[in-house]
Design brief:
single chain; 238 residues; mainly alpha
């Protein structure tokens, strides 16, 4: 074994390596996204996945080893979610005036997101464990992982599905809403928050602050409702 191979063999098991790798890659991806004018496809999370995934594959690094280093960033999802209360407070009057439509949209969006995933997976003959892992895909990662683990799913698979859902939602929301003629920033933001959790919410804030506020509301409320309805949907379908 060469000296370089020995050094890499040692470093690849150290959590700090993958934490540093994640931060450096995301900062670079964010810079590229800014240079591209933050277009819909210029999503820094997508860029980061495209870069980091081949690194893990080529270095034969297990996901568990990578996550041991990146879990500090995962931990920060909690405080980041709580921080969404700041713009919520700033727009509290607007939110309270639209409480009725918010609750109706939440109920429809949450049920459709979970039920459609479970029914499609069932129709394609996927295993029960995979179906369970799919059910919370539109929920923010900490909640989705908890739901998946509690129902007997595969948390690792759920994490991948959550990220894919968020990236797809963040990329498609703006062109889709424009094509549909939806101009109300509250509706646009809430829809992406329910469907694409934190990644979609981050995109909404880049486009419009009011949309980001309602995306944060949608993400938080969807996490609560999905944690209640996902077990019921899984029990009914399986």
């Amino acid at each position: 074994m060469t000296d370089v191979a020995r050094i890499w063999s040692y470093l690849s098991t150290e959590p700090l390596l993958w934490l540093t790798c994640t931060i450096v890659v995301y900062v670079a991806a964010e810079a590229v996204a800014m240079r591209l004018g933050r277009r819909a496809l210029a999503n820094p999370v997508l860029f980061s996945v495209i870069i980091i995934a081949p690194i893990l594959w080529l270095s034969d690094t297990p996901y568990e080893t990578y996550f041991e280093g990146a879990q500090f960033i995962h931990f920060l999802l909690g405080p980041a979610t709580v921080a969404l209360a700041v713009p919520l407070h700033a727009n509290l009057r607007t939110v309270t005036r639209t409480a009725g439509p918010i609750l109706a949209a939440l109920l429809v969006g949450s049920v459709v997101a979970a039920l459609s995933a479970v029914l499609l997976a069932k129709a394609f003959g996927l295993s029960d464990q995979v179906i369970v892992s799919l059910s919370p895909k539109s929920t923010t990662a900490p909640v989705a992982l908890g739901i998946s683990e509690a129902l007997g799913g595969l948390p690792t698979l759920t994490a991948v599905l959550v990220i894919l859902t968020g990236i797809i939602g963040a990329i498609t929301v703006t062109p889709l809403m424009n094509a549909m003629g939806v101009t109300d920033w509250r509706a646009r933001g809430f829809a992406v928050g329910v469907a694409a959790h934190g990644i979609g919410t981050a995109r909404a804030f880049q486009v419009n602050e009011l949309a980001g506020t309602f995306a944060g509301i949608g993400m938080a409320l969807n996490a609560i409702l999905t944690s209640l309805i996902a077990p019921l949907i899984v029990a009914l379908v399986l």
